[in-house]
């Protein structure tokens, strides 16, 4: 039975520490294949590892953002029931290897990520694109908006931060679809950090600009990654908006089946992840906020960030695993 303190504030807080094991294990599995050039293999081992650890958690969980539909993803598919089924009913968003290509090339910022939330409190987003904008904590409400131009958003960030525009850095996925956006941001004088993949990390990086050098995330990435990023930002603080890119009838219909009636809706961070949310990410490759997994002669070292929205606690866990059998 949960005590009154934990009951009054949502999820059982012991889970905040428990979920670290889930991402640690996925990250270690993927890290063994860093730089091997085989994205599928790295992804598969991360999925397997995450699933087996997840099934030990004292939860009665359902994957709502996962690896795909049951017929296309044998494990951790949307709708899959996970956990030991003895705990609270929760919804789960996960990406066992966010940035498969990054891992395959051993470039920065691939992560194993998971969010656990009270039932019904995550946006059930289909696997389509999402237009996103995010900034970290400390800005006045509504500093940025998806409906405003990139130019206006960059200027608003500079103004609120009290710096010149050329001291602002925007993180953008390096994709042909962003050619015009990139041109526009460059014209403002702001700097751009182009990333090959990994926009969950890109959004999280806005929360610590002194460390990461990134002030704002803008552009179109995966919708599942958008919900995961919103969950993280809710725990740390910050602002985010997202709009699903439902540009075909098929996508509109698919979204409708998941309960989305307005295809043009702009979701706030709170609408993508409400209620009490736990989030964990373990670095697979070295990154701006998290170290990648280290294999030493007698231990495996992992670096994880775990957080909880109701208390806004952000913990970093650097773990030295000496019983290596659990990673076999
Ligand atoms: C982004 C990126 C992810 O998907 O969300 C991207 O951050 C969007 O899709 O790491 P495209 O690659 O088609 O642009 C990933 O690359 C993979 O999940
Ligand atoms: Mg994945
Ligand atoms: Mg991904």
- Estimated share of beta-strand residues: 25-35%
Tell me the domain tally. Answer: 2
How does the major sheet shape up? 8 strands, mixed
Write down how many β-strands occur, each being a DSSP E stretch of 2 or more residues.
14
Compute the separation of the termini in Å.
Answer: 33 Å
What is the overall shape?
globular
What is the level-2 CATH architecture name of the largest domain? 2-Layer Sandwich
Helix tally equals 11
What's the overall average pLDDT, rounded?
95
Bound molecules: 7-O-phosphono-alpha-L-galacto-hept-2-ulopyranose, magnesium ion
CATH topology of the largest domain: Fructose-1,6-Bisphosphatase, Chain A, domain 1
Backbone CA Rg: 19 Å
Question: Which segments are poorly predicted (pLDDT under 50) over 5 or more consecutive residues?
Answer: 1-8
